[in-house]
Specification:
Blueprint lengths: L1 H56 L4 H14 L6 H12 L4 H17 L3 H15 L2 H17 L7 H11 L6
Helix pairs in contact: 1-4, 2-3, 2-4, 2-5, 2-6, 3-4, 3-6, 5-7, 6-7
Length: 175
Amino acid sequence: MHILVIVLGLLGGAAFWWYRVRYLSEVASEVADAVGRVRGSFRRKQLRKQAELSPLAAIDDPVVAAATLISAVAAEGVPMTPLRENAIRAAISGIADAKKADEAVIYGKWAASQIDDANVVIDKLTPFLRDRLDENERHHFLEMTSDVVRAGGDLPPLYDQRLQRLRQKLGFQVN
């Protein structure tokens, strides 16, 4: 009888520990799933953010960067009028040949339309331009931007702030 009690005790102990190990395994699996979901969420957020900025990340030409910056500032808060579009085309044609200017304006309009805030475009593209343009070219770029925006009639609501930010990011003294 005492052997039967010992065997039942051993079987009961083994069943208890088997249940505990299985339960801990399930808990560890749930924790791993939760960590995986958090990591996946973080990765998706990074990919979304990168995809959001990808039109800007693909720009490797100063002419395209200039067209995109001008388009973003000119079209923020107001529709892109044909006058402004023609002014952008004319301004960019002054610094590049006709075919390259046309491609730059088309890509610039599209890239600027993909991003709601002109500040993002200014923050991402101005360092690229600042490194590639000398001081006179940067002044000329600011004049081009101002001329294009003023060519289309109503000024965008935040135009002065955007131009000031652009001036600051290009490395000029801001009052």
